[in-house]
Specification:
Number of helices: 13
Largest sheet: 7 strands, antiparallel
Structural class: alpha+beta
Number of strands: 20
Strand content: 15-25%
Shape: globular
């Protein structure tokens, strides 16, 4: 019997299960509420946000669908508020933060909102939400710039500020947000969407407490945190034990490395021996890096179940302050995601050879976030940001997935072409699978995309930085490496530029921004792929004739019926 049940013999396992499923339903409703109310397409279409419920101490109890990087950082956001306002938290309070170094967020654009939930003057839980806001000031539209050298250039910082006090809005905070954003209406609209999610959760949690009692709700949460831990430890028993290492190179040539040690009781991710933090904005805070480690750990230890704070108790992360994966203020972090995702990919690379049925080869490993601001013929500004999909690596069981979001994105979607064209000042001239070679193997890597945005406004500006432009996704067991991510600008006059990055680069009407995302790495010797599958790939356009001959040797073994 669970220890939590022993504390209260009146609370049976069925009631615990009902309360936990109720928490899941509440976070699902919170998620729907925020998506429906948001002003930005990156939230209501892409679903670039997350919601959660924590217990009174800030331990993650339930999370709605969303980006793992958001959900996994909402409990630190709550804990930061608890630490700052201990003894001064009141019913009806709402707190706001976007400080990457204190507020449980990854960069300034990600804004967390947290709200205490009381029942009969007793703090029983917190509701939390976080979404990507398009612009909070700073040196560049969209509050993102590869040229940033310190955090202060990236926009307005809100360090765990009280937004509502006992139910009353603190209007000066709203005024400060409006005054600092190039898109004030959009920011305030997304702010109210986040608040609606919090209040939805608060209302449902109060109903739950009235029905079962606050003590029962608290006890059920405690029981499920312990259950989450037991599931992870049970899953760890099936994992190979030992020390596993991997190295990779960033596109600028710097070496990154990880050591993963799995024992019966612990899963240790050691990222201490890595480059010093960057002068630019690709740094990752320790909380961002921790979410990467959590995502990989969950994927191999207990992938079939929900996540809560208990799920991650066996995980230990080791980092060195002042390094790329544990940056310290005031280092800029606007483009943190490009190296945050590399930490996850590096952990996967260490584990994949030892658990090939659980871990695929390397994927396109970039958010490929593309921000375009344009000015239409009437002088009105239109700004959008979109993460892109790409190719995933093959595994010991199957070919890689085509055109999926990166390991950082979870339950998100690409913005529909119709929405992009109707609202964002561009025309989607092309969206197709990447026809380039790469990722050959017994199981081949999935395909990335070739996406082209044509500028419709009289002028526009582009901000973007992709990783895996130089170092391709890795193959496994003789599988070939994938292709590379690429960003190009096709000028209206026919000039073509391949860009390493773009920091508010000015565009003209008719210019085309071309995004090519990588094909994933392959698994196994390409010569072992059956001819029938190669011919099928040729017919369906996944590979070309040269690739079939040069990588798979199709003509050479055309009569080898043993491989048919």
């Amino acid at each position: 019997m669970n220890d939590a049940f022993r504390d209260n013999s009146d609370l049976d396992p069925f009631t615990v299960e009902i309360i936990q499923l109720s928490l899941t339903a509440i976070t699902d409703e919170m998620f729907s509420s925020m998506a429906r109310a948001a002003m930005s397409s990156v939230i209501y279409e892409v679903l670039d946000f997350g919601v959660a419920i924590t217990d009174a101490r800030g331990e993650l109890a339930s999370a709605g669908a969303g980006i793992p990087s958001f959900v996994g950082m909402l409990d630190p956001a709550v804990k930061a508020v608890i630490a700052k306002y201990a003894g001064a938290i009141r019913d009806g309070d709402v707190f706001i933060s976007n400080d990457p170094y204190t507020g449980g967020v990854s960069h300034i654009n990600d804004v967390s909102l947290t709200m205490p939930v009381f029942h009969e003057d007793r703090l029983v839980a917190w509701t939390a939400s976080k979404g990507h806001w398009l612009d909070l000031g700073g040196m560049s539209p969209g509050s993102l710039s590869p040229a940033a050298t310190e955090l202060f250039q990236e926009g307005l910082i809100l360090p765990d500020v009280r937004l509502f006090k006992a139910g009353a809005a603190v209007e000066p905070v709203f005024d400060i947000i409006r005054a600092n954003s190039r898109l004030p209406d959009q920011c305030i609209g997304d702010l109210w969407a986040g608040i609606s999610a919090l209040r939805t959760g608060e209302r449902r949690l109060r109903e739950l407490c009235r029905k079962y009692g606050a003590s029962s709700v608290e006890l059920a949460i405690r029981a499920y945190l312990e259950y989450g831990e037991r599931l992870s430890r049970l899953g760890m028993k099936t994992l190979p034990k030992g020390r596993f290492e991997a190295v990779d190179h960033l596109d600028d040539g710097r070496l990154i490395r990880v050591e993963v040690t799995i024992t019966e009781d612990t899963f240790v991710v050691d990222l201490r021996d890595n480059p010093m933090q960057d002068k630019g904005p690709v740094n990752s805070t320790v909380n961002s890096t921790r979410v990467s480690a959590q995502a990989v750990f969950k994927g191999v230890a207990a992938p079939a179940h929900w996540a809560n704070a208990g799920s991650f108790r066996p995980l230990k992360l080791l980092t060195t302050p002042g390094t790329l994966f544990h940056a310290q203020a005031p280092a800029p972090v606007g483009l943190y995601y490009e190296n945050k995702i590399r930490s996850a990919d590096l952990i996967c690379k260490a584990l994949a050879p030892h658990m090939p049925e659980l871990m695929p080869a390397g994927h396109f490993c970039s958010i490929c976030a593309t921000l375009i601001r344009s000015e239409d013929v009437n002088g009105a500004d239109r700004t959008f940001i979109e993460p892109e999909v790409g190719g995933w690596g093959a595994s010991a069981l199957k070919d890689g997935e085509n055109a999926q979001f990166s390991a950082s994105h979870g339950d998100t979607f690409n913005c529909p072409v119709e929405i992009n064209e109707a609202r964002n000042g561009i025309e989607v001239e092309r969206l197709e699978l990447n026809a380039e070679s790469g990722g050959a193997g017994r199981y081949r890597g999935g395909k990335g995309i070739d996406l082209r945005y044509r500028i419709l406004g009289k002028r526009a500006w582009l901000t973007a930085e992709f990783s895996r432009r130089v170092t391709p996704p890795w193959g496994i067991a003789g599988g070939r490496d994938g292709s590379r991510n690429r960003l190009e600008l096709l000028r209206r006059d026919g000039e073509m530029l391949e860009l390493a990055s773009a920091a508010n680069l000015e565009l003209g009407q008719g210019d085309i921004v071309r995004i090519v995302t990588a094909n994933g790495g392959g698994f196994g010797d390409p010569q072992l792929r059956p001819d029938a599958e190669i011919i099928s790939d040729l017919r369906d356009g996944y590979i070309g004739s040269e690739e079939a001959v040069n990588d798979y040797g199709l003509e050479i073994r055309a009569t080898d019926t043993r491989r048919q």
